From TrEMBL:
Top-tier EC class: isomerase
Annotated stretches, region: Disordered: 665-685
Listed Low complexity bias regions: 665-677
Protein's organism: Methyloversatilis universalis (strain ATCC BAA-1314 / DSM 25237 / JCM 13912 / CCUG 52030 / FAM5)
GO molecular function: 3'-5' DNA helicase activity; ATP binding; ATP hydrolysis activity; DNA binding
PROSITE patterns linked to this entry: UVRD_HELICASE_ATP_BIND, UVRD_HELICASE_CTER
PANTHER family: ATP-DEPENDENT DNA HELICASE SRS2, UVRD / RECB / PCRA DNA HELICASE FAMILY MEMBER
Protein known as: DNA 3'-5' helicase
Length: 742
DNA sequence: TTAGCTGGAGTTTTT
DNA sequence: CTCCAGCTAA
């Protein structure tokens, strides 16, 4: 052991990971095992021991938040100049390289970045220009197709197409590429693909970066896609003499982004291709009590093909998990609110409480209950600052200053605020642009008549803006844009427009901050580029980092979010609601190959968010898509050892809601196509005189667990319809079938 | 050009 | 049920 103070307090595995010699390594970092600490300490250790200069390090993350945190913690440990440090997101780093080598990458110097919304509108515009039937080729689908092709590293000519439909799609992909190139814009996937191609084709540039980056660190490696992994291999010079040391840190059990291209298999491939001879496992958890970890371990054990890992803690086992069975979703929410009130009363801070759910639709009922109770709450997942329409409008004007041929920006604001340029004029303009293969801005010269006049006025405005902004500092530029474009005036006259005006003004602040803060400094620190243009750097920043999620950060509030957005966070108390078959695991996932395993990993993530107390709840019935659905409780309950759970409701389902009621026949509900969840249009009527009621969970000797979804008849004729999940939905005569409350 | 209607869809999300 | 996109009528 050295006496290096950086290393004090590390456990054995952490120490081992931090002080590994310069070789490639795979770190399996369990939830709450001090992953970020290891990553940052590793960086600090490498630098402080003189093994590598800050110049020789590349650290990649997925989110700006993670990159910022890493940088902040590193500079706190080891005061240094952040200039020249390559710590950032995949997209941010690729952008940086492309800015430096725009010529070699075949891009205009001031290329703009399309965010997803921009990309979608660019595709819609393309489809319209080509007169494509958008029934057959919906823009969203085409966008998904293009992005996934790019994420596999495939250009149009490399995509296999065996039928006319597929060939047409590829053709559209090609047309989209041509359009982007013409307009000087790149989408997110293009940043990566372009950068990969640059490195692959340009030997001197590749050699330069391979020589430079001696240590590459990758965070959340399980979330990398095919292209990102290839990019890493290229940068690391895999298989070359001077191969860099790559430290991949990740957790296969927390891989929950396959739906957006993440390839867990990269972990195994990495282990093999980089000849990793010892995988380091960080299994000691510093976050949760033992019972919570035991539950998480028990659930994830049902997955196959894991790299293997078992979380443990030195903290005690703590209390058991608290399980609640609710009558319906509304009652579930009411119960959550009652518990929260008690928790707050006992001194738990509101923002130490999180309400997690599988899908966003579930937040409504919770919000309603919290609102009625007057408990401050905060929902994650809304619009972010740079995604708001007024902000995007202002940015579009700025994009036109940087590049008047940016047709996406052009179409966005050509008639906003309205200036009499309707669909007709725009269509003429688009036709002219198409005919003379020029941008919309450039097509003015080919227009005649009324359209020429109105469009001419707008183009004059764009020129005027560019002229007025020449030599101005960024914040002053924003100021000019807001005034001259008429945006501020427009929102001032709009009722309820004050917030939008405030957001517009906030762009000025954002620009000022950007100039003074690291955002710009990082780009400015680029050693091999000419001084970058602040405007275009700011626009990239706006696309690459959409800003904070909209929520009032004011008073401490109860946190509401999906399990996905909770990844990486932790809370004293976690409520995991809606644990029902069909919802979690989600019905769509059950059909996908290995979909259930991904749901299970999601459950694992959910459980491991809790530090001290974890509530699990489900409802017998729930309003979904305007229909009441009766679902079985989630199979995940069966995967958690019973001794870890304390049921807050009497032995599953035996509570006497409903009881007896009308004995008249209830019309039969339509059979469900999904065997494990079941929908019916009616509320929860009490059923015949059998003591059973709709929504109740029951057990059958042959079919196992089920839930009553319908009933009819009374006395000896009483029959109930039961959803037995995998065993199907069946009508059973109560006089004959042995059905017991479960 | 905009308001108002109608129909369709409805996991998860970062850059 | 509830949101959104796209269409029709003023």
């Amino acid at each position: 052991m050295t006496s290096n103070p950086l290393l004090s307090g590390l456990n054995e595995q952490q120490f081992q990971a931090v002080t590994l010699p310069a070789q490639s390594a795979l770190i399996l970092a369990g939830a709450g095992s001090g992953k970020t600490r290891v990553l940052t300490t590793r960086l600090a250790w490498l630098i402080s021991t003189g093994q590598v200069s800050p110049h020789g390090i590349l650290a990649v993350t997925f989110t700006n938040k993670a990159a910022k945190e890493m940088l902040a913690r590193l500079t706190a440990m080891l005061p240094m100049n952040a200039r020249g440090l390559w710590i950032g997101t995949f997209h941010g780093l690729c952008n940086r390289m492309l800015r430096a080598h725009w010529k070699e990458a075949g891009l205009p110097q001031l290329f703009q970045i399309l965010d997803s919304a921009d990309q979608l509108s660019a595709i819609k515009r393309l489809l319209k220009a080509l007169n494509i039937d958008d029934e057959k080729f919906p823009a969203r689908e085409l966008m998904y197709f293009i992005n996934s092709a790019k994420e596999q590293g495939l250009r149009p000519h490399e995509v296999e197409a065996f039928d006319d439909f597929a060939r047409k799609r590829v053709e559209l992909y090609q047309a989209y590429e041509a359009q982007c190139q013409r307009e000087g814009v790149v989408d997110f996937a293009e940043l990566l693909l372009r950068c990969h191609e640059l490195l692959q084709r340009n030997e001197p540039i590749r050699a330069h970066y391979q020589r430079r980056f001696r240590h590459i660190l990758v965070d959340e490696f399980q979330d990398t896609n095919v292209l990102q992994y290839r990019w890493l291999k290229l940068l690391a010079g895999l298989g070359t003499d001077g191969q860099a040391a790559v430290m991949a840190v990740g957790d296969d059990d927390q891989s929950i982004y396959r739906f957006r291209g993440a390839e867990v298999g990269n972990m195994r491939d990495f282990e093999r291709e980089f000849h990793v001879d010892n995988v380091i496992r960080l299994e000691q958890n510093y976050r949760s009590h033992g019972n919570i970890l035991d539950a998480a371990n028990a659930v994830i054990r049902h997955n196959s093909g894991r790299l293997g890992k078992n979380l443990w803690t030195e903290a005690g086992s703590g209390e058991p998990l608290r399980v609640y069975e609710a009558f319906n979703d509304i009652e579930e929410a009411r119960w959550v609110v009652e518990e929260i009130k008690a928790l707050i009363h006992d001194g738990t801070a509101r923002d130490d409480i999180a309400l997690l759910y599988r899908s966003n639709a579930q937040s409504r009922v919770l919000e309603h209950a919290l609102f009625s109770a007057g408990i401050p709450y905060r929902v994650y997942g809304g619009l972010r600052f740079f995604e708001r329409q007024e902000v995007k409008h202002a940015l579009a004007y700025m994009r036109l200053i940087a590049n008047p041929h940016d047709d996406t920006a052009f179409t966005r604001v050509v008639n906003f605020p309205t200036r009499g340029i309707g669909a007709r004029s725009l269509e003429q303009l688009q036709d002219a642009a198409q005919a003379h293969s020029t941008s919309l801005y450039g097509a003015l010269n080919f227009l005649t008549g009324k359209a020429a006049q109105s469009v001419g006025a707008f183009i004059k405005l764009v020129d005027q803006l560019r002229f007025a902004c020449e030599g101005l500092k960024l914040p002053e530029m924003v100021e000019q844009v807001l005034e001259l474009s008429g945006l501020r005036a427009h929102y001032l006259t709009e009722k309820e427009g004050q917030e939008r005006v405030a957001n517009l003004d906030e762009i000025i602040n954002a620009a000022a901050n950007f100039i003074s803060e690291e955002g710009y400094a990082q780009v400015a620190a680029e050693d091999e580029t000419a001084p970058p243009d602040p405007l275009s750097a700011f626009l990239s920043h706006a696309s690459l980092e959409a800003g904070e999620h909209q929520a009032d950060a004011g008073q401490a509030a109860v946190q509401l979010m999906t399990v996905h957005s909770a990844k990486g966070l932790e809370f004293d108390v976690v409520f995991m609601g809606g644990l029902e078959e069909g919802l979690f695991p989600h019905e769509n996932s059950v059909l996908e190959r290995d979909g259930l395993e991904e749901e299970r990993r999601l459950m694992y993530v959910a459980i491991t968010r809790a530090r001290h107390r974890l509530y699990l709840s489900f409802a017998q019935s729930r309003m979904l898509h305007g229909q009441t659905r009766y679902n079985l409780r989630s199979r995940f309950f069966d995967e958690i050892p019973a001794e870890l759970m304390k049921w807050l409701t009497p032995p599953a389902s035996a509570r006497g809601y409903g009881g007896f009621g009308s004995s008249s026949a209830v019309p039969a509900a339509p059979a469900s196509s999904n065997p494990r969840s079941f929908g019916s249009g009616r509320k929860n009527p009490a059923v015949n005189d059998s003591g059973f009621r709709i929504g109740q969970q029951v057990a059958h000797a042959k079919f196992g667990a089920g839930v009553i979804v319908n009933a009819e008849g009374s006395g000896s004729d009483a029959r109930v319809q039961v959803n037995f999940g995998a065993h199907g939905v069946k009508w059973l005569a109560l006089a004959v079938a042995k059905l017991t409350p479960a």
